[in-house]
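ok here's Competence protein ComEC:
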Amino acid sequence: MERRPLAAIACCWILGNGLSCLYDGITFWLLWGGISLMAPLLSTVGRFPWRRLLVLWILFSLGAAYWANNDGSNVSAIEARSKYISPENSGMMELEGIPVQVEGRIVSTVDIDGDRAAFTLRLSGYSFTGESNGERASRERKEPWHESKEKVAVQLRLSSQSELATAASWKRGQIFVIGGTLERPGDARNFGGFDYRNYLRNQRIHWLLKTKGASGVISESPNHFSFTAVLGKVDSLRDRLGVTVGKLFPGWQAGYMKGLIIGLADDLEPEKYAQFTNLGLTHILAISGSHVAINVGLLFGLLRLCRITRETAIWIVLGFVPVYVLLTGFSPSVIRSGIMTMLGLYLLRRGLLKDGLNVLSAAALLMLLWDPYYLLNVSFQLSFVVTAGLIVFVPLLSPYFRWLPERLRGAAAITVAAQLVSFPVTIYYFNQFSLLSLVANMVIVPLVSLIALPVGTAALLASGVWLPLGQWIAYPVRLLNSLTFTATAWLTDRSGFMTYWKSPSLLWITIFYGLAYWLLRRGAHKTAAQPYSAFSAASVDDTVPLPPYPGAKLPHVATLTRLKSSWKQLCLSCILIAGFAGLLVTGYQPANAKGVGHVQFIDVGQGDCALITTPTGINILVDGGGTVSFRKPGDAWRNRKEPFEVGAKTVVPLLKKRGIHRLDAVILTHGDQDHIGGLQAVVEQFPVEALLFNGSLAASATMNKLMATANAGNIPVYAAHQGMKLTPDEATTIEFLAPPDEPVFSGVPYVEEQNHRSLVFRLEMEGASFLFTGDMDVSAERKVLALESGKRLLLPSPVDVLKVAHHGSKTSTSAEWLARLQPKLSIISVGASNSYGHPNAGVMERLERAESFIYRTDLQGEIQVKVKSGTLWIRRKLE
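and the structure:
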């Protein structure tokens, strides 16, 4: 605390924030009491000065109280006034779907993607109008009119292509009057899935305002100065700079350079962005410390060339930094680097710059005092963790790179340190790490940072004087960009280097950093130390005197002492290395523990997807959901830049988060889009050992692409049929009951009606029985029942868990079928508020008559079944 008081203060404040964030009620008070009792223990045993411990304890407690106070006040003012709508039973759910008219100011950039415009509106007032959604908003205030400063997230559906220009003219600071309906943001529907409601709450947003048509919006420019109006002017300037960048760089390079220079990463092609993501290079596109440092360095150099004094140059740069922070998007990473740069320059000007960790701590405290929810921001966490890691770990890593040339030594240490300290945070949020990431960062980052960024910035500035001059300067950057993405594409195509990790616990992350620091510190001390050697001295001159200090040992005695100490140090180092390796092995294990069977029915909306994990860790994916589009050919303008695809956005992230490294089998029950659409992303990103389908192909682009990908990846494809049996392990058996094995004389047939040919199979695992039915219809049910007559028993009776066919459609799940199966549990995979009316009321009635416990993904989200020795444990995401 003496050398780095701000670092100690920041750590205690963040610890208090974190404790209050993670726990509440009796758990919080027990942990707070336990930490409080450690203070006097440290003072007694560790001989820490009690005054310092008291100060740190007070800061820790204040941090916890500050978070609790802010989080407690983070409630919806609209909800608090909902008694006006329903005095008898007020509550947030009562307000959903009620037409409302609001007035407010835009406080975010307007994101236009396809036919949707999205932005954040800070309200000045609202009224429940009674008008229908989409009616033109009226400037006349309806009574009662409530004043409010609450923020809402507006999602506006454009009615026609001509409204794109209208939406593009909207800027921050404008005042809007909009009519629409309020809806609650959706929460996570799968375990470990993205929680949109919590994401918006951390921005103090509690409601979505949904409306249609830009023509129904009344807008006006601000009539007085405001910070958001200034930000609107900055947005316009950024847009103009983006247009200029588009003139300097062709095609996809324009989107890449917009992100690199001014922080506009939305225009980068998804494929290019995925390459950067897979190699851990997305930090290049996030304006951060390196961008600020390079631009500050360029400005400093330019000012010194103009013979401006050092003191004056510092003041000029101090004025430049906040302008640059505003211009590049005001993200947490650039705010952090901006604050650190300004503090560092000021302290440098005063001759007080002593320690970078104190400056970093001051920046963290300022940001967390301004908004404690920064603590939960991924960009904030990565920015501060990596910066602190560079300060602490680079000096420890530098001795290991003495064999490199002096100019490369520091760069190598910085790259390795950044990879090391960012690794736990990266796998916690993104659940993947490429073994080629270190190579990519060592090769590509210096080229981008030292050439593409400064020369691209110079080209942008020069184009303001004369556009051809800027294009001439940009030419070498174009060549470098082509080389960069050629390299990233080649590295991305190398198979076997991508690893998937479950999200580790906070304890695992803490132990990781502790062991890494201890190991590197011990190694750095050994590498830097050059102890006196009696034998080496004697070899030069036989008459070298004994060491001139009292009690000096003879050479052989000193050597024995050092050998004993070396053995102890070696053993301790081996233990630490073994512990670190064991920690990595533990973190790499899948989330589903071995020895227990798991069947997880993932909520993919209107579709099917289930993950089977056997007691020995065999993973089998049954279907993958799929996004069904009803877009007309003439409505191509409505398509988003990167349309939502359930496989890439839901299934793949969940598999990664659960630590699934490979899929031993993928079963396609049939070729409908809502069952196989999501599998394309799965087979592209995961090693798949086998693909099983129903022996027929659907005449669709989705099926053709999926089979082509399997063929290109050398994935074996098998046609499953009635009577086929698989034994993944001793406790698990899969037997297919449909479709029947029919002779095929000329290749794989194309069948339009895929539901009837759905794969139906019985899963026996750990003494429990499951029946998967795909979208089989009543006719297929009758065929299975008929095949059973006079033969061995095919169907389990009673079946423990039945996956109800076709999302509960009336075309399946007949009374005869249920009478034969007698299912104890029935699970319906169905989309919330789907347009098909699933599940059918008649099916629900038949299931209830069969006395089967019913679980539905539209009401309860993901449903997980854990089985051990015939006993089932059920848990659902939504209550």
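+1. The first helix runs from residue 5 to 22.
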